[in-house]
Amino acid sequence: MSVEAEGATARALDRAAAGSPALPSTSHRAERAATILSPVLLVVVWEVVAQVHLIDTRFFPPPSEIAAALGKLIASGELLGHLSASAGRVVIGFLIGGVPAVAIGLLMGISPLFRAFVRPLVSVTFPIPKIAILPLVILVFGLGEASKWAIVAIGVFFLVLINTLAGVLAIPRIYFDVARTVGASRWQQYLTVALPGALPSILTGVQLGFGIALVVLVAAEFVGAKTGVGYLIWSSWQSFLIERMWAGLVVIAATGYLVQLGLDWLEGRLVPWRGR
Asked: Cys-Cys with 184: which of 58, 179, 205, 244 at CB 3.0–4.6 Å?
């Protein structure tokens, strides 16, 4: 190998060791532009193919008509009422299911005996589709708000629990050994080692759980509600008001996207060491 080649190789290794990429990376500005371009391009293509009748506009109306229907729902205040009802159900159900899931997941990670006791129960019940137990939930809790809270809580519980447990198990054991060496109680290990160490995984579970919460809540609102975005979609379908139905779908998609952005921001503040 020539002296020049050896020098180039050494410089490349130095850059890798210093954490700087050898190849130029995509700029943040270009990434933002690509993020915005993809949905805009989808809407434009959809509008064009709908206007030239390459798709059946009875079932796939152009985005301009969906936007008009959405504007009417906003102007009348109807959308705000449905969105408020769904948001309240998601928040309450999330608290009911998510808070115990974090507590149990942390305890399972710390205590092998408790983990051995609970893990088979989780493994057996987690694969059951949550929508499949909706009839049972309605049978037990009725058609009121309690059934909506329960199905959301069930959908959220397992994802948050499993991610919390995975986060605790990923913490190097030496941290717990040090905590025990300095005389930390089980409760102190719980709060000062397990919870901070598992926080990135907990937030991942929260993000996944929110997506499932929307799915199961909309399904619950299809069959047992008179308010909510799910009810808006279902009643619009029954009346063949397809533009209103699509408007409800757009609202769900936009809500999910905005919440994910908010959770990403929160994660950046709580766990900045992840570097997202």
From this structure: 179
112 sits in which H/E element:
helix 112-125
Q: Does 104 map to a domain? A: yes
How many structural domains are present in the chain?
Answer: 1
Tell me, yes or no, whether 240 lies in a domain: yes
**What is the C-alpha separation between 275 and 159, in angstroms, rounded?**
23
Report the distance separating Cα 108 and Cα 165, nearest Å.
Answer: 6
95 CB-contact burial (10 Å; exposed 0-12 / middle 13-18 / buried 19+) = middle
Distance, in Å, from the CA atom of 58 to the CA atom of 120, rounded to the nearest integer, reads 49
pLDDT in tens, the chain (276 residues): 444 444 444 444 444 444 444 444 557 777 777 777 888 888 889 889 988 888 888 889 999 999 999 999 999 989 999 999 999 999 999 999 999 999 999 989 888 899 999 999 999 999 888 888 888 998 898 888 899 999 999 999 999 999 999 988 888 888 887 888 888 777 777 788 888 888 888 988 998 998 899 889 998 898 878 888 999 999 999 888 999 999 999 999 888 888 888 888 887 787 776 655
Q: What pTM does this model have?
A: 0.78
CATH number, domain at 201?
1.10.3720.10
Pair 102, 160: CB distance under 8 Å: yes
Asked if residue 32 is part of any domain, the answer here is: no
Look at residue 36 and tell me if it is in a domain: no
Token pair of 122 as six digits: 């989780």
Cβ atoms within 10 Å, residue 141: 16
